[in-house]
Amino acid sequence: MLKKLFNRKQSDTPAIDSNAIPKHVAIIMDGNGRWAKRRGMPRSMGHRAGADVLKQIVIVADDIGIRALTVYGFSTENWKRPEQEVSLLMALIKEYLNNNVKYMHEHNVRIRFIGYIGALSEELQQIIRDAELLTQNNTGLTLQLAINYGGRDEIVRTIRDITSSVKAGTITTEDITEDYVSSQLFTKEFSDVDLLIRPSSDFRISNFLLWQLAYAEFWFTDLHWPDFTKETLLEAVAAYQKRERRFGGLRDEE
């Protein structure tokens, strides 16, 4: 099925400018459960279909020159879901990594994780460490998987770390600039997000990358994540390239 989705005719593919590719793209992979429900399937089938799509989108993103792709895998709020679904999601994360890390490594993709990993099972923590270690020297796209991540939680943890540094005398309050705060976040290796993509008809950021989205362009689609294709990604990038990013400034004609 996925091969058919990613092998459409060239005429169906939106044209993009290879010289204006967003460096950092973030995706809220929403709609897995609704996709499954509409088809009379258990939610688990939707999550598995979504995991298959991610594998394909990572390679497409790398091919067109995106340098960092940050995806929302499991939020700090997802612990509120039924215990059975949380267990399923954790099992799917392990399954995805066990099945795909080698594939990503062979495609020169680097894998990183953001979020408070310490709350996860020791088994999953070890799988995460192994994935990061195996791919750490790869030079292609960096896939950042947000697991047990929340934007507010990230900011609170960063404030605590900065406060501790001030108390220890390693920095002063005058050292605390926007650039310094950015350098202490989970995403410190990368620039702010250029483009946020959210499928499944919701128009909110759901506590995702609150600091990093300050000047991001947002792109929404009614498609559920399992229906997301190569063409959908290219459509989002093409829309991004038509926008004028002013970062608080004026349009040229103003």
UniProtKB/TrEMBL annotation:
Summarize where Mg(2+) binds, as residue positions: D30, E217
Q: Which residues bind substrate?
A: 31-35, 43, 47, 75-77, 79, 81, 198, 204-206
Record's protein name: Isoprenyl transferase
Checking HAMAP family in the record gives: ISPT
Annotated active site: D30, N78
Q: What does this protein do?
A: Catalyzes the condensation of isopentenyl diphosphate (IPP) with allylic pyrophosphates generating different type of terpenoids.
What UniProt keywords are attached to this protein's entry?
Magnesium, Metal-binding, Transferase
> What does the subunit comment say?
Homodimer.
* Lineage summary: Bacteria, Bacillati, Bacillota, Negativicutes, Veillonellales
Q: Which family does it belong to?
A: Belongs to the UPP synthase family.
Name the cofactor(s): Mg(2+)
Give the Enzyme Commission number. 2.5.1.-
Coiled coil regions, renumbered to chain: none
Pfam families linked to this entry: Prenyltransf (PF01255)
Decide whether keyword Magnesium is in the record.
Answer: yes
Q: What does the record note about the cofactor?
A: Binds 2 magnesium ions per subunit.
A single GO molecular function, which one?
magnesium ion binding
Q: What is the enzyme's class at the highest EC level?
A: transferase
List cellular component terms (GO): cytosol
Q: Which residues cross the membrane?
A: none
Biological processes per GO annotation: polyprenol biosynthetic process
NCBIfam families reported for this sequence: PRK14830.1, uppS
